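QA checklist item 7 of 12: single-chain prediction sanity check.
[x] sequence parsed
[x] length recorded as 331
[x] structure emitted
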Amino acid sequence: MTLPTRPLGTSGLEITTVGLGTWAIGGGGWLYGWGPQDDEQSLLTMHHAVELGINWFDTAGVYGHGHSEEVVARFLREVSDDRRPLVFTKCGPTWDDRDPFKDEPSDLSPGNIRRQCEDSLRRLGVERLDLLQFHWPDDGTVPIEESWAEMARLVAEGKVRSAGVSNFDTGLLARCEAIMHVDSLQQEFSLIERGTADKELPWVREHGAGLLCYSPMGAGQLTDGFTAERVRQMPEEDWRRREFREPALSRNLALRDALRPVAARHKASVMSVALAWLLAWDGVTATIVGGRRPEQIDGWIGAADLRLSSADLSEIGDAVRATRAGQGPVA
Protein backbone atom coordinates (compact mmCIF):
# COMPACT_ATOMS: atom_id res chain seq x y z
CA MET A 1 0.00 0.00 0.00
CA THR A 2 0.98 3.61 -0.53
CA LEU A 3 0.10 5.93 2.34
CA PRO A 4 0.15 9.74 2.28
CA THR A 5 3.27 11.37 3.68
CA ARG A 6 4.18 14.73 5.14
CA PRO A 7 7.58 16.36 5.66
CA LEU A 8 8.94 16.12 9.19
CA GLY A 9 9.53 19.83 9.53
CA THR A 10 12.60 20.84 7.54
CA SER A 11 14.53 17.66 8.34
CA GLY A 12 14.25 16.29 4.81
CA LEU A 13 12.43 13.19 6.08
CA GLU A 14 9.09 12.34 4.46
CA ILE A 15 7.03 10.19 6.80
CA THR A 16 3.64 8.54 6.61
CA THR A 17 0.94 10.29 8.60
CA VAL A 18 0.65 7.25 10.86
CA GLY A 19 3.66 5.55 12.41
CA LEU A 20 4.01 2.45 14.55
CA GLY A 21 4.69 2.98 18.24
CA THR A 22 6.66 0.26 20.03
CA TRP A 23 6.18 1.21 23.69
CA ALA A 24 4.07 -1.87 24.45
CA ILE A 25 6.37 -4.29 22.64
CA GLY A 26 9.00 -3.51 25.25
CA GLY A 27 7.01 -5.97 27.34
CA GLY A 28 6.33 -6.04 31.05
CA GLY A 29 8.45 -6.11 34.16
CA TRP A 30 9.22 -2.38 34.39
CA LEU A 31 7.59 0.76 35.76
CA TYR A 32 5.66 1.84 32.65
CA GLY A 33 5.20 -1.52 30.97
CA TRP A 34 1.94 -2.60 29.35
CA GLY A 35 2.20 -6.16 30.65
CA PRO A 36 3.67 -9.28 29.03
CA GLN A 37 4.22 -9.24 25.28
CA ASP A 38 5.16 -12.04 22.86
CA ASP A 39 8.20 -10.99 20.80
CA GLU A 40 7.07 -13.13 17.86
CA GLN A 41 3.75 -11.26 17.80
CA SER A 42 5.70 -8.01 17.88
CA LEU A 43 7.72 -9.06 14.84
CA LEU A 44 4.58 -10.06 12.94
CA THR A 45 3.05 -6.70 13.82
CA MET A 46 6.05 -4.79 12.49
CA HIS A 47 6.07 -6.78 9.27
CA HIS A 48 2.36 -6.09 8.81
CA ALA A 49 2.89 -2.38 9.41
CA VAL A 50 5.48 -2.19 6.65
CA GLU A 51 3.30 -4.27 4.31
CA LEU A 52 0.53 -1.69 4.82
CA GLY A 53 2.88 1.15 3.88
CA ILE A 54 4.00 2.58 7.24
CA ASN A 55 7.53 3.92 6.82
CA TRP A 56 8.61 4.77 10.37
CA PHE A 57 8.65 3.26 13.85
CA ASP A 58 8.95 5.09 17.15
CA THR A 59 10.80 3.51 20.07
CA ALA A 60 12.91 4.57 23.08
CA GLY A 61 15.76 3.22 25.11
CA VAL A 62 13.61 3.09 28.24
CA TYR A 63 10.85 0.97 26.67
CA GLY A 64 11.32 -2.40 28.33
CA HIS A 65 14.71 -1.08 29.47
CA GLY A 66 16.23 -1.69 26.05
CA HIS A 67 14.03 -4.57 24.99
CA SER A 68 11.87 -2.62 22.54
CA GLU A 69 14.96 -1.48 20.62
CA GLU A 70 16.29 -5.05 20.62
CA VAL A 71 13.06 -6.39 19.11
CA VAL A 72 13.07 -3.61 16.50
CA ALA A 73 16.66 -4.63 15.68
CA ARG A 74 15.51 -8.21 15.08
CA PHE A 75 12.94 -6.87 12.64
CA LEU A 76 15.51 -4.72 10.83
CA ARG A 77 17.66 -7.81 10.29
CA GLU A 78 14.71 -9.63 8.73
CA VAL A 79 13.56 -6.93 6.32
CA SER A 80 15.15 -5.97 3.00
CA ASP A 81 16.80 -2.56 2.66
CA ASP A 82 14.13 -1.28 0.27
CA ARG A 83 11.43 -1.97 2.86
CA ARG A 84 13.34 -0.76 5.92
CA PRO A 85 11.39 1.82 7.92
CA LEU A 86 12.91 4.87 9.53
CA VAL A 87 13.50 4.30 13.24
CA PHE A 88 13.03 7.13 15.73
CA THR A 89 14.24 6.66 19.30
CA LYS A 90 14.65 8.66 22.49
CA CYS A 91 17.14 9.18 25.30
CA GLY A 92 17.16 10.68 28.78
CA PRO A 93 15.32 8.45 31.30
CA THR A 94 17.60 6.31 33.43
CA TRP A 95 16.76 3.00 35.04
CA ASP A 96 18.16 0.38 37.41
CA ASP A 97 17.80 -3.20 36.19
CA ARG A 98 18.18 -4.36 39.81
CA ASP A 99 14.97 -2.48 40.69
CA PRO A 100 12.94 -2.21 37.45
CA PHE A 101 9.94 -0.56 39.12
CA LYS A 102 12.00 2.25 40.58
CA ASP A 103 11.51 5.83 39.36
CA GLU A 104 13.20 6.61 36.02
CA PRO A 105 14.54 10.18 36.28
CA SER A 106 15.58 11.96 33.12
CA ASP A 107 19.28 12.79 32.83
CA LEU A 108 20.14 15.15 30.01
CA SER A 109 23.77 15.63 30.97
CA PRO A 110 26.02 15.50 27.89
CA GLY A 111 27.72 12.34 29.10
CA ASN A 112 24.46 10.45 29.56
CA ILE A 113 23.07 11.64 26.22
CA ARG A 114 26.15 10.31 24.45
CA ARG A 115 26.12 7.02 26.38
CA GLN A 116 22.46 6.42 25.61
CA CYS A 117 22.94 7.33 21.95
CA GLU A 118 25.74 4.77 21.72
CA ASP A 119 23.58 2.20 23.53
CA SER A 120 20.71 2.75 21.08
CA LEU A 121 23.04 2.45 18.09
CA ARG A 122 24.32 -0.83 19.48
CA ARG A 123 20.93 -2.28 20.39
CA LEU A 124 19.37 -1.27 17.06
CA GLY A 125 22.39 -2.47 15.10
CA VAL A 126 22.63 0.71 13.01
CA GLU A 127 25.36 3.22 12.29
CA ARG A 128 23.13 6.28 12.47
CA LEU A 129 19.86 7.07 14.25
CA ASP A 130 17.24 8.51 11.88
CA LEU A 131 15.83 10.69 14.69
CA LEU A 132 17.06 10.97 18.27
CA GLN A 133 14.84 12.81 20.72
CA PHE A 134 15.18 13.95 24.32
CA HIS A 135 12.40 11.92 25.93
CA TRP A 136 11.62 14.21 28.88
CA PRO A 137 13.13 17.37 30.36
CA ASP A 138 15.32 16.74 33.39
CA ASP A 139 15.41 18.61 36.70
CA GLY A 140 17.18 21.58 35.14
CA THR A 141 20.49 21.03 36.93
CA VAL A 142 22.20 20.89 33.55
CA PRO A 143 21.27 23.89 31.36
CA ILE A 144 19.32 22.68 28.36
CA GLU A 145 21.76 24.61 26.16
CA GLU A 146 24.54 22.21 27.20
CA SER A 147 22.30 19.21 26.53
CA TRP A 148 21.25 20.41 23.08
CA ALA A 149 24.85 21.33 22.21
CA GLU A 150 25.75 17.66 22.81
CA MET A 151 22.92 16.65 20.49
CA ALA A 152 24.37 19.03 17.89
CA ARG A 153 27.74 17.31 18.24
CA LEU A 154 26.14 13.90 17.67
CA VAL A 155 24.53 15.25 14.50
CA ALA A 156 27.83 16.73 13.32
CA GLU A 157 29.55 13.38 13.93
CA GLY A 158 27.00 11.57 11.78
CA LYS A 159 25.61 9.45 14.60
CA VAL A 160 22.25 11.21 14.45
CA ARG A 161 20.51 12.32 11.27
CA SER A 162 17.72 14.45 12.77
CA ALA A 163 17.26 15.78 16.30
CA GLY A 164 14.09 16.37 18.26
CA VAL A 165 12.57 16.60 21.71
CA SER A 166 9.54 15.20 23.49
CA ASN A 167 7.37 16.66 26.27
CA PHE A 168 9.09 20.06 26.02
CA ASP A 169 7.28 23.37 26.57
CA THR A 170 7.79 26.41 24.38
CA GLY A 171 10.34 27.93 26.73
CA LEU A 172 12.65 24.92 26.45
CA LEU A 173 11.99 24.69 22.72
CA ALA A 174 13.10 28.29 22.22
CA ARG A 175 16.31 27.71 24.17
CA CYS A 176 17.13 24.67 22.05
CA GLU A 177 16.28 26.46 18.80
CA ALA A 178 18.86 29.13 19.62
CA ILE A 179 21.58 26.45 19.57
CA MET A 180 20.42 24.24 16.68
CA HIS A 181 17.13 23.82 14.85
CA VAL A 182 14.65 21.47 16.52
CA ASP A 183 13.56 19.09 13.78
CA SER A 184 10.60 17.67 15.67
CA LEU A 185 8.53 17.77 18.81
CA GLN A 186 6.80 14.65 20.10
CA GLN A 187 3.89 15.55 22.38
CA GLU A 188 0.83 13.87 23.87
CA PHE A 189 -2.13 15.02 21.77
CA SER A 190 -5.52 13.38 21.43
CA LEU A 191 -9.22 14.12 21.69
CA ILE A 192 -8.73 13.65 25.43
CA GLU A 193 -5.44 15.52 25.95
CA ARG A 194 -5.79 18.60 23.74
CA GLY A 195 -3.53 21.11 25.48
CA THR A 196 -0.85 20.93 22.78
CA ALA A 197 -3.25 22.67 20.37
CA ASP A 198 -2.91 26.08 22.01
CA LYS A 199 0.51 25.67 23.59
CA GLU A 200 3.17 23.97 21.48
CA LEU A 201 1.39 23.65 18.11
CA PRO A 202 1.66 27.39 17.27
CA TRP A 203 5.40 27.29 18.07
CA VAL A 204 5.90 24.26 15.82
CA ARG A 205 4.16 25.97 12.91
CA GLU A 206 6.13 29.18 13.35
CA HIS A 207 9.53 27.48 13.53
CA GLY A 208 9.14 24.79 10.88
CA ALA A 209 9.37 21.79 13.20
CA GLY A 210 7.45 18.56 12.79
CA LEU A 211 4.87 17.52 15.37
CA LEU A 212 4.49 13.83 16.26
CA CYS A 213 1.45 13.04 18.39
CA TYR A 214 1.77 10.24 20.93
CA SER A 215 -1.05 8.46 22.78
CA PRO A 216 -3.48 9.68 20.09
CA MET A 217 -6.15 7.26 21.32
CA GLY A 218 -5.74 7.99 25.00
CA ALA A 219 -3.69 4.83 25.59
CA GLY A 220 -6.60 2.74 24.33
CA GLN A 221 -9.61 4.63 25.69
CA LEU A 222 -10.66 5.82 22.22
CA THR A 223 -10.39 2.38 20.61
CA ASP A 224 -13.61 0.79 19.41
CA GLY A 225 -13.94 -1.98 21.95
CA PHE A 226 -12.38 -0.52 25.11
CA THR A 227 -14.39 -0.91 28.34
CA ALA A 228 -14.10 -0.22 32.05
CA GLU A 229 -14.07 -3.98 32.55
CA ARG A 230 -10.96 -4.14 30.37
CA VAL A 231 -9.18 -1.91 32.87
CA ARG A 232 -10.07 -4.24 35.73
CA GLN A 233 -8.70 -7.20 33.76
CA MET A 234 -5.34 -5.60 32.95
CA PRO A 235 -2.23 -7.15 34.47
CA GLU A 236 -1.25 -5.55 37.77
CA GLU A 237 1.95 -4.21 36.20
CA ASP A 238 0.11 -2.40 33.36
CA TRP A 239 0.64 1.31 34.12
CA ARG A 240 -2.86 2.15 32.89
CA ARG A 241 -4.42 0.48 35.93
CA ARG A 242 -2.89 3.29 38.02
CA GLU A 243 -4.01 6.06 35.68
CA PHE A 244 -7.51 5.26 34.39
CA ARG A 245 -9.82 6.57 37.12
CA GLU A 246 -13.41 7.73 37.44
CA PRO A 247 -15.10 9.98 36.55
CA ALA A 248 -12.60 10.68 33.76
CA LEU A 249 -12.76 7.13 32.40
CA SER A 250 -16.54 7.20 31.91
CA ARG A 251 -16.38 10.62 30.25
CA ASN A 252 -13.67 9.44 27.88
CA LEU A 253 -15.63 6.34 26.94
CA ALA A 254 -18.73 8.47 26.38
CA LEU A 255 -16.72 10.62 23.97
CA ARG A 256 -15.52 7.50 22.20
CA ASP A 257 -19.13 6.34 21.79
CA ALA A 258 -20.13 9.77 20.44
CA LEU A 259 -17.68 9.23 17.57
CA ARG A 260 -19.54 6.16 16.33
CA PRO A 261 -22.04 8.05 14.09
CA VAL A 262 -19.16 9.86 12.36
CA ALA A 263 -17.35 6.57 11.90
CA ALA A 264 -20.47 4.93 10.49
CA ARG A 265 -20.91 7.66 7.87
CA HIS A 266 -17.34 7.12 6.67
CA LYS A 267 -17.51 3.33 6.98
CA ALA A 268 -14.48 3.67 9.25
CA SER A 269 -13.48 2.66 12.75
CA VAL A 270 -13.80 5.00 15.71
CA MET A 271 -10.02 4.76 16.01
CA SER A 272 -9.60 6.12 12.49
CA VAL A 273 -11.90 9.04 13.26
CA ALA A 274 -9.92 9.91 16.40
CA LEU A 275 -6.68 9.89 14.43
CA ALA A 276 -8.13 11.80 11.47
CA TRP A 277 -9.27 14.52 13.89
CA LEU A 278 -5.64 14.99 14.93
CA LEU A 279 -4.35 14.98 11.37
CA ALA A 280 -6.81 17.76 10.52
CA TRP A 281 -4.90 20.24 12.73
CA ASP A 282 -2.59 22.56 10.79
CA GLY A 283 0.96 21.80 11.90
CA VAL A 284 0.47 18.16 12.89
CA THR A 285 2.85 15.94 10.93
CA ALA A 286 1.84 12.46 12.04
CA THR A 287 0.48 10.31 14.83
CA ILE A 288 2.22 7.47 16.64
CA VAL A 289 -0.10 4.50 17.13
CA GLY A 290 0.85 1.46 19.15
CA GLY A 291 0.37 -2.08 17.95
CA ARG A 292 0.91 -5.41 19.71
CA ARG A 293 -0.80 -7.67 17.15
CA PRO A 294 -1.10 -7.35 13.35
CA GLU A 295 -4.90 -7.09 13.38
CA GLN A 296 -4.75 -4.03 15.61
CA ILE A 297 -3.13 -2.07 12.79
CA ASP A 298 -5.96 -2.98 10.46
CA GLY A 299 -8.30 -1.15 12.84
CA TRP A 300 -6.63 2.25 12.46
CA ILE A 301 -4.61 2.27 9.23
CA GLY A 302 -7.60 3.81 7.41
CA ALA A 303 -7.00 7.08 9.24
CA ALA A 304 -4.21 7.91 6.81
CA ASP A 305 -6.74 8.42 4.00
CA LEU A 306 -9.73 9.64 6.03
CA ARG A 307 -10.72 13.28 5.54
CA LEU A 308 -13.24 14.70 7.98
CA SER A 309 -15.64 17.38 6.77
CA SER A 310 -16.30 20.62 8.61
CA ALA A 311 -19.63 19.13 9.71
CA ASP A 312 -17.79 16.09 11.11
CA LEU A 313 -15.39 18.30 13.01
CA SER A 314 -18.23 20.39 14.39
CA GLU A 315 -20.05 17.27 15.56
CA ILE A 316 -16.93 16.00 17.26
CA GLY A 317 -16.44 19.35 18.99
CA ASP A 318 -20.02 19.23 20.27
CA ALA A 319 -19.37 15.72 21.61
CA VAL A 320 -16.28 16.89 23.49
CA ARG A 321 -18.23 19.69 25.14
CA ALA A 322 -21.25 17.47 25.94
CA THR A 323 -19.18 14.70 27.55
CA ARG A 324 -16.76 17.08 29.30
CA ALA A 325 -13.98 14.66 28.41
CA GLY A 326 -10.38 15.71 28.68
CA GLN A 327 -9.02 19.22 28.49
CA GLY A 328 -7.93 21.77 25.91
CA PRO A 329 -9.32 23.39 22.74
CA VAL A 330 -11.95 21.50 20.76
CA ALA A 331 -11.48 23.11 17.33
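[x] summary fact logged: The domain at 17-243+284-302 is CATH 3.20.20.100 (TIM Barrel).
[ ] second reviewer sign-off
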